[in-house]
Design a protein that fits this description.
heterodimer; A: mainly beta; five-stranded antiparallel beta sheet; B: mainly beta; seven-stranded mixed beta sheet; four-stranded antiparallel beta sheet; globular
Chain lengths: 109, 116
């Protein structure tokens, strides 16, 4: 099945800093999503982005499907951005999103 | 409000008991899924259902059972055969089936199960 790798595993920032999270995947995809898992465990949908570029406020994402990677950009980070960011992709396995191991982001005031 | 509702949020179970986790969605999605998350880990697929009265095993189905009698509902039973049931369980849904169509998955708030 598809392999999904995220980097870096941990990221510590000061408030106001920018960051880039990377997701590499090993197969072609119909679905690639970025999620933010909050301290209560809920997975918040950030982007559905199997290809192209999208922006939502301070967050943006780009997926280059031909090179099998996706990037999540966080600008002007805030303490509320802290949490775990997951990338997930479906590949050719029916019924399944394969998750990366996540990036733990900590933003200090 | 449209969404996915999981209940209860927290569940405690004695060893040897079966327990059922509820998942209801009002998004009119055909496909539903159950995932398990262990501390510091990503999510792993337990079962999925593409349509009513049909469901398939995922990567870690042993010790779990499901049913899909209604489009809106996909309950998960954690049986006594599951060796390490303590985990965070997340239900998801999508219009089409992941891996087959271009479709986005949405998740419920999760149920934290602890075996005591």
């Amino acid at each position: 099945g598809i392999q999904v790798e995220q980097s870096p595993p941990d990221l510590i920032l000061q408030e106001g800093a920018n960051s880039t999270l990377r997701c590499n995947f090993s197969d072609s995809v119909n679905n690639l999503q970025w999620f933010h898992q909050n301290p209560w465990g809920q997975l918040i949908n950030l982007f559905y982005i199997p290809s192209g570029t999208k922006q939502n406020g301070r967050l943006s994402a780009t997926t280059v499907a031909t090179e099998r990677y996706s990037l999540l950009y966080i600008s002007s980070s805030q303490t509320t951005d802290s949490g775990v960011y997951f990338c997930a992709a479906d590949g050719t396995s029916y019924g399944k999103l394969t998750f990366g191991q996540g990036t733990i982001l900590t933003v200090h005031p | 409000d449209g969404g996915i509702t999981q209940s209860p949020k927290y569940l405690f179970r004695k060893e040897g008991q079966n327990v059922t986790l509820s998942c209801e969605q009002n998004l009119n999605h055909d496909a539903m899924y159950w995932y398990r998350q262990d501390p510091g880990q990503g999510l792993r697929l337990i079962y999925y259902s593409q349509i009513v009265n049909d469901f398939q095993k995922g990567d870690i189905a042993e010790g779990y059972s499901v049913s899909r009698e209604k489009k809106e509902s996909f309950p998960l039973t954690v049986t006594s055969a599951q060796k390490n049931p303590t985990a965070f369980y997340l239900c998801a849904s999508s219009f089409g089936l992941l891996g087959r169509t271009n479709t986005e998955a949405f998740f419920g708030q999760g149920t934290r199960l602890t075996v005591v």
